[in-house]
Amino acid sequence: GQADFQRLIVIDSKDKTVRQLKIDRDTMAEVTVLGMLGNPVGTTQMQISLAHGFGDGKEESCGYARDAVSRLLRGENIDFYLAMSLDGISVLNDLAGGVTVTLEDDFSAIDPAMTKGTTLTLQGEQAETYVRSRRSIGVGTNEARMARQESYIRQLSVQLDEKLQKDQNFAVDAYDALQPYLTTSMAKGQLVNEAWAAKDYTRLDTIKPDGTYQVGEDGFMEFYPDADALQQAVLQLFYEKVE
To answer: From residue 229, how far is each of 80, 206, 215, 233, 234 by CA, in Å?
Structure first.
């Protein structure tokens, strides 16, 4: 299926920083398309979330998604990928101890406890409902859902960091619990070691390039990132300024 929300994470071991690039799922990008026999036949501009839909739903799909992001970022190399199906968000949420949110929209049609204005600690399937629901929630746009996801992920990250700070084995336990939902090019030991090494790094502000939205001829939303903003993001993520 589609890659619902995507982030590029850059870990700089020299400066001891971690920075994320938030990529709108409707970003128009050059995506690998397959022919009748399932072989790549070129690229076509479409929403970047669709890149994952080509392939086997696992490693092959992740490779096409990685390639689309690389092309978007002017050909910069992406070392590793990690994808988690949204079925795993409930497990991750509960590993973090549950994330407390104030509901700005009404989710009660899905879960009666999730009424607008309620402050609650999401548990189990409530977390998936919160980050995944869109069409019947609020204004129903992906942009609104991305804002909700951003707020949720920010708090989730803080809680996961706190867990990791207290116990190196937390990364191992989390990987084992999430393994049924993961597809990644990183070995378990490498992923755990990277997480442990980066636990004390400074988290820099997330980058989200400006751009314009429009409805395409097919009726679906399209996001066109500003070329200068995208170039600036590449420079911030991959290059050091020479004094």
So the answer is: 24, 14, 21, 6, 9
Q: What pLDDT, in 10s, does the model give residues 81-101?
A: 999 988 899 999 999 999 999
| Burial call 5-36: b when 16+ CB within 10 Å, e when fewer | bbebebebeeeeebbbbbbbbbbbbbbbeeee
| Contact call for residues 73 and 8 (beta carbons, < 8 A) | yes
8 Å CB contact between 57 and 73: no
Q: Which residues does 187 contact at the CB level (< 8 Å), separation at least 6?
A: none
Please tell me whether residue 97 adopts helix, strand or coil conformation. coil
- Give 193's DSSP letter: H
User: How confident is the prediction for the chain on average, in pLDDT?
Assistant: 89
Task: For residues 91 and 221, give the distance between their C-alpha atoms in angstroms, rounded to a whole number.
Answer: 31
